[in-house]
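U., I forgot to send this yesterday:
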Amino acid sequence: MATGLVNGTDLLLKIGTDATNEVVIAFATSCSLEISMDEIDQTNKDSLGWKSIIGGLRSWSVSADALYQNEAKAGDTSFTDFWDNIENRTEVFVEFTRSGTLTSDNKYYHGKALVTSLSVNGGTEDQSTFSVTLTGTGVLTEAPGA
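Result:
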């Protein structure tokens, strides 16, 4: 087995009001982090017919899918919490990390974000789920583990 590879089950998305009280999204089945950068076109007559760009604004977002629960238990982050965040336009603290003890070799990512998308899904004779997307409102910080 290759050293350093991470099992996807170990990746977690945590939400809170600040860096000291974040909790894992309850019953999450997947999570993702997307980082992107706008491109600024610098193509000119000296580009020899090739597009030339420089980096522009950077942005980031996180998303998760989770099993839907009608009533969340105390300490869980669930659909109703995200509903409240989107209803009140509340900024939240986000941490994209690994489960277990982080070492200095493990990086995690954190920043502030707004809930920008929330949906519930339910198929016939299937587990109901919800999806949430949070878009960063500033810098996404990469930090080493403990």
